[in-house]
Amino acid sequence: MPRKFTREEVLRNNTKESLWCIIDGRVYDLTEFLESHPGGEFVLLQAGGKDATIDFYNLHRQSVLEKYSDLCIGGIENEEPQVIRHNPGDLSVVPYAEPAWLTPQFKSPYYNESHRQLQKAMRVFTETYILPEAQEKEVSGEKISQALIQRMADANILGMRVGPGKHLHGRSILNGVLKGEDFNYFHDLVVTQELVRATARGFWDGNMVGMTISLTAVLQHANPVLKEEVQRDCLSGKKTICLAVSEAFAGSDVSNIRTVAEKTPDGQFYIVNGTKKWITNGTWCDYFVTGVKTGDGLSVLLIERSKGVETKAIKTSYSAAAGTAFVTFDNVKVPVRNLLGQEGKGLKVILSNFNHERWMVTCAGVRMSRIVVEECLKWSNQRQVFGKRLVDQPVIRAKLAKMISLVEAMQAWLEHTTFQMTQMSHSQQSEHLAGPIGLLKMYASRCAHEIAENAVHIFGGRALTRTGMGNVVEMFHRTTEFDAILGGSEDIIGDMAVRQAVKKFPKSML
Ligand code: HEM
């Protein structure tokens, strides 16, 4: 049984020798903690013997109390803690913190019980296994651990990251929550929107994004033997794979790449020379799905890390946990059986995954935007300035209204697009959805930009620091702009969408 104290007892412990305080009906002994408190000794001495609940929540997250729970020596007689504690898997109780389909009062035509079960299991998994490692590695810049990759492989989370398809058939997801055959794009959306809740941008990209955007090319375009081998290696977590297309010479204009592959006289191998830049997960990947020039055309080769392949980490403004690399191919010998698709038809191979990649970037960006809105709602409600909560200021409410409406609009458009994906074959998606998905991604990254800006204004100085209350907002503001670039710069894909629309313009109306 926890010890119970009266408020008078706590009040008597207000010196350096014995320093207690009350936070949310619980009593904390801060005597030993005084010297190591990141906020300094003086402020704690001022709180000695008092109820410091309002001051504490004005400056700290609930998770701080959970981390330092050993400082808690008991509770106050006849008082119960008021603050709701978050357990792994719980839905947020903050309005607008969850998409409408997860809010009991709202209904959705898109999701059924299998999506709800998957969402629940993914949230428990993310909060139990991914979030702690993500937070640690985001700071240290280290690669995701093999143990976590293995755990995701065993639960078939790796398989789900590549989207619906035959590679999931016969697999049981997260201990029987779902059969692989039943996995559709709404399950795919759920998985991405839960995983990104680990709120660590570099680590998120490090967590197999390379595989998400490259293994699909192998599944769709490799010869059956190679496909079987690489699929088995990657989905079991034994090997990792990334997409190596962009170069210092060519980003969104993939057809201008300069990496060259020349066939050996016996026709058995390609010899590859060139460089690749900004390759996510490249520092540690085993396989590189690589865009190369073959004669006048563009082709795609699966290159294994071997003699002549070198990778160097590129210093970026986000965590090195993403494994962003500069890759050099120096006379690398690649068997011809590693050609994906046909020689000279590589653009088709590269484009075949762009819709899914852009859609996935959008799923993640929309969810991160919502997390930032939740952070702002919570902060505005708990932060006191000029004797009032932030949320009591009309200017703050106007910002929140704008942010919430942007997130709701993005999610609604995303779900509408996802529904279209469930109704179309892969080739129909390429034909009809490339433009709409491009526009959706562009809209989402513009909204995220606006949300980040408003969030910084709401959090003030805390939005500049990587620790403490503003850490999520700081990370989002620093990294959200990448979504405008990844999978094709937003200006270029926006332009592509309009050009495609113009092509379909009926002549009779002119
Ligand atoms: C159980 C009690 C407490 C613990 C475990 C604790 C722990 C921490 C930690 C870990 C930080 C670093 C920032 C963060 O991670 O949020 C911090 C910062 C700080 N704390 Fe505490 N704290 C406690 C109580 C208090 C109290 C009662 C006050 C004052 C009334 C206080 C004032 C501050 C200040 C001023 C900062 C710096 C905040 C900033 O830079 O924004 N702390 N504290």
Automatic annotation (TrEMBL):
A single MF term (Gene Ontology): flavin adenine dinucleotide binding
Domain Cytochrome b5 heme-binding as annotated: residue spans: 2-77
GO terms, biological process: fatty acid beta-oxidation using acyl-CoA dehydrogenase
Gene3D superfamilies listed in its UniProt record: Acyl-CoA dehydrogenase/oxidase, N-terminal domain (1.10.540.10), Butyryl-CoA Dehydrogenase, subunit A, domain 2 (2.40.110.10), Butyryl-CoA Dehydrogenase, subunit A, domain 3 (1.20.140.10), Cytochrome b5-like heme/steroid binding domain (3.10.120.10)
Keywords: FAD, Flavoprotein, Heme, Iron, Metal-binding, Oxidoreductase
Family: Belongs to the acyl-CoA dehydrogenase family.
Name under which the protein is recorded: Acyl-CoA dehydrogenase-like protein
Organism: Lepidopterella palustris CBS 459.81
